[in-house]
Amino acid sequence: MTRPRLTLLGLPLDPVTLDEALGRLESWLDAGRPSAHTVVTLNPEFIMQARAEDAEQGGESAFTQAMRRADLVTADGVGIVWAARRLLGEDVPRAPGFDLASGLMRRRGAQLRVFFLGSKPGVAEAAAAAASSQYGVQVAGVHHGYFDRNEDQRVAELVRESGADLLLTGMGAGRQEMFNEYWRDVMNVPVMLGCGGVLDVLAGTAALAPDWTRRAGVEWVWRVAGDRKRWGRAPRLGQFVLLVSRQSRSGGRS
Questions:
Q1: What is the CA radius of gyration of the chain?
Q2: Residue 220 domain-assigned?
Q3: Domain assignment present for 22
Q4: What is the number of domains present in the chain?
Q5: Which residues pair with 13 in a beta bridge?
Q6: Entry pTM
Q7: What is each CA distance from 123 to 143, 167, 168, 194, in whole angstroms?
Q8: Over the stretch 61-72, which tens digit does the pLDDT of each residue have?
Q9: What is the pLDDT of residues 77-121, one digit of tens each?
Q10: Range of the domain at 125
Q11: Closest CA to 28 of 164, 197, 213, 205
Q12: Is residue 246 one of the residues assigned to a domain?
């Protein structure tokens, strides 16, 4: 029985297991076109960034709107699991972005046409080659993520013309979710997943966190500690803990 969607700190959250999430993605693939669904893998950084953008704009930001309109929002990390238990009294399973992408490619294999969009020039090509070799998927197309917003329509039309079944969009928090949401009807891809650094992991330019950190749900600690480029993101994690603690003390449920 499917559990109803939750609202965590003003954003949607679907309490689905990894298998349930993959089953839903496969049902969208089986439904065929016209069909366009967006998937968000929610983490503490998303929540803090969206709240900051909402405050700056004096209302709901495009990032927040994209997450609200997503067809599936899963818990990416242990921070979301902890917050849902603390604020909502709900046990929410994790369904991280890498596990969704790799799981779907493993299940569908050669039946699946994938467009790899994001990261630096050359990375999407390497990710596509690795995914084709490891999972047997068809490569619908590739494009780096370093393009200006005035090129969004061109890239969206490129994705549409590719006939992709799955779009992996790795352009960073906010940018990837907004791109998928805004251009969803143009691209008309059954499953569009904002996947962060998944392309880098597939390409071998970034390491997947060790199994023990993934089992414990604390791979973000390993990543932040091991990559100086991520150190600037650490304060947001601290802010998230404080936000959840304040909400919990005040009895907040939003």
A1: 17
A2: no
A3: yes
A4: 1
A5: 6
A6: 0.90
A7: 9, 15, 13, 16
A8: 999 999 999 999
A9: 889 999 999 999 999 999 999 999 999 999 999 999 999 999 999
A10: 6-207
A11: 164
A12: no
